[in-house]
Structures are given as C-alpha cells and as structure tokens.
Write a sequence for this structure.
DNA sequence: TCCATAATGTGAGGAAAGCTCACAAACTAT
DNA sequence: ATAGTTTGTGAGCTTTCCTCACATTATGGA
C-alpha cells in the first residue's frame, strides 16, 4: 500500500559536530513551532534557526517528514523510559498504585509540550519507518506486570487480550485528555477517572 | 495561539452546478487518495480529477487545508447521524444493549474508509474552524441517555463527569482499534472488550 | 425577448516551499 | 605532509499552492 518510493539512504552522523548538527536541527523545529507556529516550520527556516545550511539538513534527513519522524522517535523513547521507570519503581506495589502511577507519569510526560506532541501526531503517519506501535512496544512489560498481580485480577481472563485493551485505554485516554482539556474538569479528576475505568475493566 | 491570519471569505455555492463543483472536488480528493496515495493529493491534481480548473477550487476553499476540513465536517455529520440514529433506535433498550450498539455503529462507520479517515485526522488540526469536538457535540445526548438509565448506574456519581469519560473512551478506543488493527485479535473481540470496559466503568 | 447584473468557471503564471548538487572546508589516518 | 573521508555550503531547480484578470453561464426585470 506504500506509494512512496524507497528513500535514498542518508549519511549517519559519525563525528561529534555531526551529531550536534542533527540536534540543532531537531531543537530548531521545537523553537520555531513554539515561537512562530506550525506554518513557520519550513525547511529553510529550520536550517536558519539551527544555524546550519539547508544542505546540511538534507545530509541527515531524506525529507521534511523524516525530521518530524526523528522527533517522534525521541518522544517514543522518552515514553518508554517513563513506563519502564514506573514499572520498576512499582514492582511490588498493588495493582491500583501501579495503574495510578502509570497514568500519572504518561499524562505528565505528554503535558510537557502538548503543542509539539500535536504536531508530531499530525505529521508522522502511524506505523511509519518500521517503528513499532505503543501497543507492540509495551505488550511484554505490561503482560509481566499483570501476571505478577493475577491475584488482583478477575480469574479466567485472557491476559493477552486484557493487556491489549488496557494498553489502548491508557494510550487513547491519556492522549485524549491531554489534547482536549476538559472544559470544567480539572486534570487531576480526569486522571482519577481514567484510573477508575482501567481498574474497573481489569476487575470486572 | 492561532498564528494564522483570518482567511478572506470565499463564495458560497448557490446554483446547482456550483454545488456539483464542490462535490466533485471533495470526491476527487477521496479518489486520488485511494488510487494514488497521500502524496498525490495536490491542489492541481484535485482540480484535474474533479474536472474543474484550479481557479474553481479556490472559489470555494480558501486553501488546501479547507478542503480536508470540509471532508472532515462531512465525516463528523455522518458520525453524529449514526449516533443519533442509534440512540433513537435504543431509547428503551437497557444500558448494555445501547453501549454495544453505539460501539458497533461507530466502529463500522470508521471502518468504511480508514485511509480517508487517517488523512483527515492528520490534515485537520483539532478544534479548527470553530467546529465543536466530539465530546462537545455529543455531551447532551449522552447525558440524556445515561439519565434515563440511572437505575443501571452506580448511585451517587457525577453524571457530567461520567459522560465526559465515556465519551472519551468511545472516541479514543474506537479510533485506536480501527487505526491499529490488533495483530491477532479479531475486530469483534476488540469491540466486545471496549463494551465490557465501558460498562465496567459505568457500573463500578 | 433582450439586456444588465450576478454567479460561476478558467488557466497562465507569481510566490513560496521542498529539495539537489557541485563544490569547499574540516577532520582522520597513515 | 598527503590521501581519503566526513561534514558543511547555498545558489537555484522543481514542485506546489494560490491569485487574478478575464470569459462564460445563469437569473430576473423591462
């Protein structure tokens, strides 16, 4: 179904200054986005703000979209770190504390820069570049976490299925709450309701 | 926060052929998207496939994004119709049947053309053009539906808050399931789990 | 029916954005 | 020092978005 021809390979940064160039480009996108808005994020402006030439940008990114994809990758890695940390910090905590901590951590991580996150969601098509989805990346860890707490779960349930649904609930609801802040509902209340919903599902 | 200047107003189609032109433009987008992929959807190609001149496109749409916004609006109206129909058809049905019917109808509506839906999600920024969000548009109707079934709900809950969370659960989870089809989970099972999760939350 | 006015349709081409390429500079290794 | 590799440059080519001056078609009153 992919109608885009295979992109020609680009150089991988090897020396320090090359990595600094790539970093400067990614940071420039964020700065332009926050200071001038989405429409100002053009390739030439990115190069200008990053303090490099437009040619350098295309040394490391095959096209404009790839720049957003790299930022997206960064975001995914951050979320993965947040989840891993939370799981470790709560290895022996009961189910409700773990779910609460997870929802809290994920929402906080997304609140840090909602504008950037919106841009990434809109510019990076899902499943692009062979990157695994949230569900695929976290399935194993969540399966382990739930297995260890099977006493607190309803018996006789297919854990794989439960993990899949919980994963989607966490991702979808956290995104939803951050992206469209409730008109009158404080964020803390929204978090609590998400936790309540997840626990209700797992115990039902 | 909107950095985009106010668009100059465009002509409203008044005669029949004008409405046909607008329709042809919107249909052209869908055809190009499905036959040639996202990248082929350029304004000039839209005009070509629609069989009108590029000038005509800009008679009715201030810019390219507005074309996607119009398609998005169409989609929203379809979903609203689907929800209204389902609510009416289930006025006297118990809560579980209603939730099941809603999830079924919404997922089916989104499965009809997932490629188009992905394009719209990626091209139309949320809250654009003064269009209300899913939550805002459906709040009243869902509030009514839940009020009428308060016997089946846990007592002493803030209905406004419940509606908000259920709304987000429906929107997020239906989108999530359609957009990233489970690797091994059949769609029917995923639907059932969404229903289970919503009911578990409402009854908890 | 004819004409004035409004609505609709046209497409060459201007403006701006994405991106390339031939070349220069900086670094590494021998 | 020298050869080879990596990194950096920016004028300008290509493509896309979009405008505008003008042509065509419809409408409504005399």
């Amino acid at each position: 179904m992919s109608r885009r021809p295979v992109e020609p390979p680009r150089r991988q940064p090897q020396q320090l200054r090359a990595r600094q160039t790539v970093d400067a480009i990614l940071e420039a996108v964020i700065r332009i986005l926050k200071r001038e808005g989405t429409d100002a994020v053009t390739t030439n402006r990115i190069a200008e703000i990053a303090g490099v030439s437009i040619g350098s940008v295309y040394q490391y990114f095959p096209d404009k979209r790839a720049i957003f994809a790299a930022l997206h990758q960064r975001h995914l890695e951050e979320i993965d770190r947040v989840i891993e940390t939370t799981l470790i910090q709560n290895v022996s905590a009961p189910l409700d504390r773990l779910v609460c901590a997870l929802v809290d951590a994920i929402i906080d991580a997304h609140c840090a820069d909602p504008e950037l996150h919106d841009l990434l969601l809109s510019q990076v098509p899902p499943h692009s570049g062979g990157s695994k989805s949230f569900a695929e990346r976290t399935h194993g860890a969540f399966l382990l976490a739930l297995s260890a707490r099977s006493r607190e779960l309803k018996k006789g349930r297919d854990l794989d299925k439960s993990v899949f649904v919980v994963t989607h609930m966490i991702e979808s609801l956290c995104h939803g709450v951050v992206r469209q802040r409730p008109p009158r509902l404080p964020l803390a209340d929204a978090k609590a309701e998400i936790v309540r919903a997840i626990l209700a599902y797992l115990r039902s």
Q: What stands out?
A: Chain B touches chain A through 47 residues (CB under 8 Å). Chain B has a mean pLDDT of 91.
